[in-house]
Amino acid sequence: MTISDFTKAVLGLALLTTLLVGFAAIGTAATTEQYNDTVTFENDSNVTVDVTWNDSISDVENASASVTFYNASEWNDDPANATVVLEDSIAAEEGNTTSTEYTDADGLEDGTDYRLVIEADDTEAEDISVDDGSGWYGLIPGGSDGSPGFGAGIAVVAIALIAVVAVVARRGS
């Protein structure tokens, strides 16, 4: 039985895609730090953290997301010795999204940059987003997801693999 080059290319692409999806799943499993980025606090927009919780949490009474604001310039110099400005815990609500707003009443200062780190068990917290109101030139609401750039990186690798398989298939025919 002879297998054509086209069939080999298609099978190779299928195998590479399966491996890529497997590595992506491994790369996102059991991550506790789900957000780590600089936010700018403004009194007129505040900072809002939204946590979307999974529908099935094994211990909902003890499930939470840990929110920590650090001095951003100190964080950039040495994260281990950065001053903690504010710490909070957001309790889980199974199957719901909890939204917590941080204001100047929490000790945050207008016009100040903070390093915001949010940790949660990824089997409990499905998604974490942060909005500091900074959006693109103030025209689009701001915010970030929990793993910026991860999906784009996977897409670039997938496109590169498809291109390689296409070139190999052309050479063989």
In short:
The chain crosses the membrane at residues 149-169. By secondary structure, the protein is an alpha+beta fold.
Secondary-structure blueprint of this entry?
Layout lengths: L4 H24 L4 E9 L5 E7 L10 E8 H6 L6 E8 L5 E6 L9 E8 L5 E7 L18 H23 L1
Antiparallel strand pairs: 1-6, 2-5, 2-7, 3-4, 3-6
- CATH fold-level label of the largest domain: Hypothetical Protein Tm1070, Chain: A
User: How many structural units, i.e. domains?
Assistant: 2
Mean pLDDT: 78
Tally of strands: 7
Query: Helical stretch count?
Result: 3
Unreliably modeled segments: 25-31, 136-150
CATH level 1 name of the largest domain: Mainly Beta
The CATH architecture of the largest domain can be given as Sandwich
Structural class: alpha+beta
Q: What fraction of residues sit in β-strands?
A: 25-35%
Name some characteristics of this structure.
31% strand; single chain; 173 residues; membrane; PGF-CTERM sorting domain-containing protein
